[in-house]
Amino acid sequence: MSLEKNQDAPDFEALDQEGKKRSLKEFKGKWVFVYFYPMDDTPGCTKEACSIRDEFSEIRKHAVVIGVSSDTVKSHQKFANKYQLPFLLISDPDKKVISDYGAKGLLFTKRISYLINPQGKIARAYLKVDPKTHATEVLADLLALVKNFCASF
Predict the structure, then answer these.
(1) pTM
(2) Residue 152 — pLDDT band, cuts 50, 70, 90?
(3) I need a labelling partner for 123 at 20 to 30 A (CA). Which of 17, 66, 136, 137 fits?
(4) Is the dihedral of CA 43, 133, 113, 89 positive or negative?
């Protein structure tokens, strides 16, 4: 079951593509865009990752980007290097993070994403993702959410 708006985003500890242990709590106080995808270096996943890479200079002004799949650290490292992906890729071989975020499918990880606000709550859930246009959609939503979030204080 996927997470819903205003739910607490589950914390996690997992290794990134450099073998460094990462957790969601290290980004507390920041916006986080976390996206789940089936497999490194496959057509749809490459398209999505590259579209996020292409929008990264704008997205990173407002949010940390984290990609998650069940691939190994080594696979993530090769994928990130091959396509010059400048964001974190988290390895979740036991699919705990994937399950906690409702992205576990029957055979493959579901292609879903979340924007998490600085308090660690789900601000937006994307349960149907088009790999080609998702980064643009997230950027537009992020800009609106950041503006509204700041205005509420």
Answers:
(1) 0.94
(2) low
(3) 17
(4) positive
